[in-house]
Fold this protein.
Amino acid sequence: MNVPSLDSITLKNIRSQVPQAYTLTQRDISRFWYANKGHFKDTCKSLSETMHWRQEFNYDNILEEDFSDLVKTRKVFFHGNAKDGTPVLVWRSCKHFANPEEREREKRFYVWILAKAEKEGLLPEKVTIVYDRTGATHANADLGLAKEVFPLFQHHFPERLKNVFVFPSSFLLSSLWYCVRPFIDTVTAQKVHIWKENEYQSKILEYIDTENLLERFGGTGVESTGTSIGTETVKIIHPHPPETRCKLEDHVATPSPTEVL
């Protein structure tokens, strides 16, 4: 289900309480409101923390950074859409090798992918992730990165995840999930589907049509090559009309306590 848009009065009240969020659209703020179950103070607190994180992370300039070396690894790329219209992001575990010294840059790389997809209009709502563990070994497991990336996206990019399909399962995967699970809220954890090797090809077809599914997963889709992250394979779908960012001078005065209760 797509996140419903926030009403204009509540939106103005939130923007007046968190003025640094003027760069966010109504849809952006609606996601924080929905993730915080419509609680005004929690929404403002969450937004304030995210805007502070964006400043420290230098998020506004991340698209200027060069990640061409990581793009060429083909460890993460988009390929087509799921049946519900969400773009599909494929993450190939066997292409990733844990390196604590590169963890911060790896983290920025994943944020860069999301920012790039948003700029190109590919993420009007949510994303479906296919986490392919075929051929993965202990060398590809990166618990440290997982512990940082999951909370980062959960806290600063709420209501962006539709589903995560993980396969094939193994004892190593079960152990990793056991360690990561406490860092993920219940709603997000319920979106993670872990499948065995003998069932994932039939299961995934319930969510993704064969033409949008790569051949290695039992579909007919051909993987992109070169320096692309696959955004050209995604159909752009806009369930809501485009929005512009709010201007700083559009802010209203701080609401009275009765307006925000």
Summary: Residues 65-217 form a domain with the Phosphatidylinositol Transfer Protein Sec14p fold (CATH 3.40.525.10).
